[in-house]
Every structure is written in structure tokens, then in C-alpha cells.
Hints:
By secondary structure, this protein is of the alpha/beta class. The chain is built from 4 helices and 3 strands. The protein has helices at residues 10-20, 36-45, 63-71, 85-95, and strands at 25-27, 54-58, 76-79. The chain has a 3-stranded parallel beta sheet with strand order 1-2-3, sandwiched between helices.
Amino acid sequence: GYKMIPALDGESGLRLAKQKKPDLILLDLVLPRVHGFEVLKKLKEEPETKGIPVIILTNLEEMGDVEKALELGATTYLVKAQYTLEEVFEKIKKSLGE
């Protein structure tokens, strides 16, 4: 029941977030052009996007990456290999208050 707006790189993701103002953003950290941490930082600096919940969904498992993402304003940090699709949907619902 969700509508997804895909972005192929961090640069287009930032542009789309500003234009479309989605209810939630699923963000990988390993992206072409602009790294996911930079995307997250810019999202949280911009008045029109700072309130959008951002769930990091990546394969990077370093504790430092988790801490950095949460410090930059991520709502949740999920490692792809550790969650089923159903569990990811549950996290999305929770982040949206459903």
C-alpha cells in the first residue's frame, strides 16, 4: 500500500526528497555521486526535509557507522542481511506511526 519513488544516486535522492517531500526515506549508505551519510546530513539540515523520518537500510555493519547515522538524525539503522522484508515493513509502519 506504499508508493515508492526510487533514486539511483544520492544527488537525485536529495533532489527528489525536496520536490516530493515523502513521508519516509529508506536510505542506503553506499551510493554513487553523494555518499549516504552526506545525503542524511543534508536532509536534516534543510528545513523542508529535516522532519522526514530516515531509515538507513544498508549492508554496512560497523558500530561507528550506526552511531554516526543516528547522530546525524536517522530514525533507525537496519542491516539488510539481518532483516526480512516483513521486518523492514514493520519498522516502516512504526516510523510512520501506523
